[in-house]
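User: For my dataset I need records formatted as: sequence, then structure tokens, nothing else. Please produce one.
Assistant:
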Amino acid sequence: MLLHGPNGAGKTNLLEALHVGTQGFSPRARRDAQMIRFGADAGRITLAGTRGDGAFETDVVLTRRESRRVALNGDRLVSVERLRQELTTLVFTPDRLAVVKGAPATRRAYLDRAAGRLFPARAHLPADYSTAVGQRNAALRRLRMSQSTREALVPWTERTATLGAELVELRIDVVALLEEAFTGAAGGLGLESASVVYEGEPATVADLDARLDADLDRGVTGAGPHLHDLRIEAGGRDLRVFGSQGEQRVAVLSLVMSEAGALRERRGMSPLVLLDDVLSELDGERRAALAAMISRGAQTVVTATAAAALPGDPAQSLSVMPGLVR
């Protein structure tokens, strides 16, 4: 589906509504109040569609003062996690360039979200590991203030090491699923010899014990997957440091497209893919390559300022004007 219209017409708002309606949160707004129309006290997004052979309907109510209310097929959900387990949406927006050029924490968060989508049974690992590290850090601080003993630290050191090893294994499995498709998609979009590499080794109990004095001085655990990174490069260049903005855009887009393909293969169902302002820095040849990828893959919604921006004939083309979709 192609959404086309002038800047400021509301194309990104439509994509945002699709994301909120299927995932329960906005890819760009931090507070619900930022998604509500100026002068209004509340907003509502209702979506209906099909997933495989079944129909679904979601309803998301946003207010300025209360927590958002999310319902799936008429049942109010206690947690939006349930919505994300049932419906999968991937999104590219210009601010997602932080996955490449931002801090390592952004790439770790991306990997862990992708892990939850690709390996749902292991989706709990990032949160479990974070809890273990937090408990170990608290135990370190108590020990530093002579309010606890080294023996009390041992169980949290062991749990941090165990869960850390499982989390590293999970992240490496995610990279293994994405790397070949990522290289192919990036190459098709003009970014040759692109690759993704997980950087970091699990910290064993022996590793954590060896650096205990340093951890006590700082009051935090100084080794483990909470400090690892995902290296995204092309031709041996780290794109975070040596990539142009155009190359960084292609890298993020390639991650989205490669994950969509991996989800389709693993789960037998295509995710919804939202691509906002993805064409502005692609030349004609690269736009044609992207159009070919889209035609082979998931249901995709693309925004552009002109109907002719995306080569080929989309399954549906919507003209977006302020207050009007035609």
